[in-house]
């Protein structure tokens, strides 16, 4: 890996960590998804810093940022845009919606209707939108960072498996430690407004290209696929990880290795990422309660059931 890029990634994580205290691993994982060209679903309670994290990341990597609050009355055109008749030119002109950005924060993604969710799905999958038979390209750095509250279910529309599968990772920020929360209430953290830009959008694009050059030995790739297959064969799992999920698993591992300062993937990268890459992609059988502790236990079993390849 280019040493200068390694230093920039370390500096980037350090800079964001001055705003979001004690959440270095979450920051690394979010950047993993961005470098891999993927999207993130944050499933967490309100007030733990999801919006702060997204805004800070956007500022440090010089990317434009938009936020959409999903509500039951939100329409696809509200996020994509709309064609409006221009009397002066006697033609329709397309007015872009908030989806035309690099970093898009979608708050409470499960509070809008499936029709609007589907409009977002096309953009996430293809990085383009179609309206009035015209296709519009989105930013090459387009990334959706979506949130949903795991506690509230009234008035929500659960995301279907097909849409969940579009998210590279599902993350949880969690509450801060006592020490970090004390610093927070004493005002001893930096404001997001004062954070420094660490890299440019073009440098981010270069890093994304470098992710594609990260090597993965065939033995490690086989190990990754065996982990995926174990989710399809595990006695407690009804729906295992899809082929798209296995591709995303490798992409995430390459990006994570780059952040760790390596140009190759090791089995530990896969083990670290597995819970975040698989948890939203599997469905447990009816006789198992889909609570977080049960899911964690089953994913640990998946890792334990697959032998780790021996280095050659």
Automatic annotation (TrEMBL):
<protein>
    <submittedName>
        <fullName>MoxR family ATPase</fullName>
    </submittedName>
</protein>
<dbReference type="InterPro" id="IPR027417">
    <property type="entry name" value="P-loop_NTPase"/>
</dbReference>
<keyword id="KW-0547">Nucleotide-binding</keyword>
<dbReference type="GO" id="GO:0005524">
    <property type="term" value="F:ATP binding"/>
</dbReference>
<dbReference type="InterPro" id="IPR041628">
    <property type="entry name" value="ChlI/MoxR_AAA_lid"/>
</dbReference>
<dbReference type="InterPro" id="IPR050764">
    <property type="entry name" value="CbbQ/NirQ/NorQ/GpvN"/>
</dbReference>
<dbReference type="GO" id="GO:0016887">
    <property type="term" value="F:ATP hydrolysis activity"/>
</dbReference>
<dbReference type="InterPro" id="IPR011703">
    <property type="entry name" value="ATPase_AAA-3"/>
</dbReference>
<keyword id="KW-0067">ATP-binding</keyword>
<feature type="domain" description="ATPase AAA-3">
    <location>
        <begin position="39"/>
        <end position="169"/>
    </location>
</feature>
<dbReference type="Pfam" id="PF07726">
    <property type="entry name" value="AAA_3"/>
</dbReference>
<dbReference type="Pfam" id="PF17863">
    <property type="entry name" value="AAA_lid_2"/>
</dbReference>
<comment type="similarity">
    <text>Belongs to the MoxR family.</text>
</comment>
<feature type="domain" description="ChlI/MoxR AAA lid">
    <location>
        <begin position="229"/>
        <end position="293"/>
    </location>
</feature>
